[in-house]
């Protein structure tokens, strides 16, 4: 009995660590927006969102654990060149290009803007001042070794969960209003639209990087057996999945009942900030703002540190500090374009690389069936990229009519999932070729 209790305690600790890694401040802003825009179709939309926002990231963690914890080693199964390029793109996407600037913008939208007059909040100066101060603090924490971030992390996760729990309970007991009417793609295909919107969490990409963190934590606990590491990772994934699902469903409910009280918005940060004020007044806004600010600081430090370490390893002649300073300044600059613009700019890129990440992840999980045959990876990823690349270009209003007419024949093309069938067919052809080559 004592061994069972110890096993559960150790595994639960790893699960909470994984949950804390996933629960970035940026994840707080997407479910309320989905809830408001999905309206009466929120159930199907949320199911789609949970698949890409919870289920696939946890499969990615397992895939990376089986591959030894290193994303580049996993991507090298396609080719070493692909491994470097793809891994670099993933790090930059969850680092200075999108995810880190998003933390700066979320800090302003939820932590600062609600306390400013509307005419002042819409001006460029407050956001600029906030970004300078925010990233100066981030740079200090990332350069100077300190236990502050660890302490913030230990306090942050339960604090953020408590705040979300209080908001969710209040929204269920005394809703701000009735669900609105579904808009956009949520009116015709809420499930697939929720699935694609889950890309914005970037959790699959983050999971491919977090794998090494989880494996290191297990090794520090004295766990060296690979099978036991994978089993523990799966258990930790279940714990994290329960926590993330609770957060996403709760925030979706808040957004779903908010439109009568605060009006429609295309910014999830604005929705959750205004909802907190409606539900609990100024006190609710203060508590939410403080918690989100801490979450943003913790997330930004972790992502910038990971990026600087990876690129320092890739280009050892350039110091860690040089990469860190460069990425921090770049993130501060991007922050000033605003949260809505950052999210809009990230969607085309995510539509291009997310399918590649998902196909790579799934193939790695069934790798033992084809003994790591390179041809299987290549023939699955090439058609995937041919379709996903155009999905991204289409969102940027770059259209090539003859090519688009061909792609329109693919199942689920209109839902930005046209890559799915070509990926499966490519993998099957690769599998057959691999078997023939062995014979």
Let me know the average pLDDT. Answer: 86
Quote the beta fraction.
Answer: under 5%
Helix/strand class: mainly alpha
Oligomer class = single chain
- The number of helical runs is 19
Number of domains: 2
User: Which residue ranges are poorly predicted, with pLDDT under 50 across at least 5 consecutive positions?
Assistant: none
Q: How would you sum up the major sheet? A: none
Shape: globular
> In angstroms, what separates the terminal alpha carbons?
52 Å
Number of strands: 0
State the helicity in percent bands: over 70%
Rg from alpha-carbon coordinates:
22 Å
List the secondary-structure elements in sequence, H or E.
Answer: HHHHHHHHHHHHHHHHHHH
What order do the helices and strands come in, and which of them pair?
Layout: H1 2-22, H2 30-38, H3 42-66, H4 71-75, H5 80-97, H6 99-112, H7 118-121, H8 124-143, H9 148-173, H10 190-197, H11 203-220, H12 226-256, H13 259-262, H14 268-314, H15 320-335, H16 339-365, H17 374-395, H18 401-407, H19 420-438
Helix pairs in contact: 1-11, 1-12, 2-3, 2-12, 2-14, 3-10, 3-11, 3-12, 3-16, 5-14, 5-16, 6-8, 6-14, 6-15, 8-14, 8-15, 9-12, 9-14, 14-15, 16-17, 17-19
InterPro entries: Brnchd-chn_aa_trnsp_Livcs
Membrane topology: Multi-pass membrane protein
Subcellular location: Cell membrane
How would you describe this protein?
It contains 19 helices and no strands. Helix 2 crosses helix 14 (268-314). 49% of the residues are buried. The chain has two domains: 2-338; 366-439, no CATH class. The longest helix has 47 residues, at 268-314. It is globular, with a radius of gyration of 22 Å. With 439 residues, the protein is mainly α. Helix content is 78%, strand content 0%. The N and C termini lie far apart (52 Å).
């Amino acid at each position: 009995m004592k061994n069972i209790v110890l096993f559960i305690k150790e595994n639960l600790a790893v699960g909470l660590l994984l949950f804390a890694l996933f629960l970035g401040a940026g994840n707080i802003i997407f479910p309320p927006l989905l809830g408001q825009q999905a309206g009466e179709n929120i159930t199907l939309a949320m199911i789609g969102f949970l698949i890409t926002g919870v289920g696939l990231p946890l499969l990615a963690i397992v895939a990376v654990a089986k591959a030894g914890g290193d994303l580049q080693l996993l991507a090298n199964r396609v080719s070493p060149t692909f491994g470097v390029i793809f891994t670099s793109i993933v790090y930059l996407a969850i680092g200075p290009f999108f995810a880190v600037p998003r933390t700066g913008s979320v800090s302003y939208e939820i932590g600062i803007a609600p306390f400013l007059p509307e005419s002042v909040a819409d001006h460029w100066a407050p956001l600029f001042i906030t970004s300078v101060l925010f990233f100066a603090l981030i740079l200090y924490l990332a350069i100077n070794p300190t236990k502050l971030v660890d302490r913030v992390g230990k306090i942050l996760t339960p604090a953020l969960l408590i705040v979300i729990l209080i908001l969710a309970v209040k929204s269920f007991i005394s809703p701000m209003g009735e669900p609105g009417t579904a808009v956009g793609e949520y009116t015709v295909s809420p499930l697939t639209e929720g699935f694609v919107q889950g890309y914005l969490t970037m959790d699959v990409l983050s999971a491919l990087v977090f794998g090494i963190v989880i494996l290191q934590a297990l090794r520090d606990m004295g766990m060296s057996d690979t099978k036991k590491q994978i089993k523990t990772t799966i258990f930790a994934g279940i714990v994290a999945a329960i926590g993330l699902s609770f957060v996403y469903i709760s925030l979706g409910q808040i957004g779903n009942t908010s439109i009568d009280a605060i009006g429609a918005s295309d910014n999830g940060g604005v929705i959750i900030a205004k909802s907190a004020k409606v539900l609990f007044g100024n006190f609710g806004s203060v508590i939410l703002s403080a918690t989100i600010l801490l979450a943003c600081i913790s997330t930004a430090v972790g992502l910038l540190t990971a990026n600087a370490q990876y690129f320092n390893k890739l280009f050892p002649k350039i110091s860690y500090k040089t990469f860190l300073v460069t990425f921090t300044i770049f993130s501060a600059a991007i922050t000033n374009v605003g949260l809505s613009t950052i999210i809009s700019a990230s969607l085309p890129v995510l539509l291009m690389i997310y399918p590649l990440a998902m196909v790579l992840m799934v193939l790695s999980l069934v790798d033992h069936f084809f003994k790591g045959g390179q041809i299987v990876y290549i023939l699955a990823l090439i058609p995937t990229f041919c379709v996903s690349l155009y999905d991204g270009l289409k969102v940027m209003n770059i259209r090539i009519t003859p090519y688009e007419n061909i792609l329109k024949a693919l199942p689920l093309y209109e839902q930005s999932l046209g890559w799915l069938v070509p990926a499966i067919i490519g993998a099957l052809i690769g599998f057959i070729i691999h078997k023939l080559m062995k014979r």
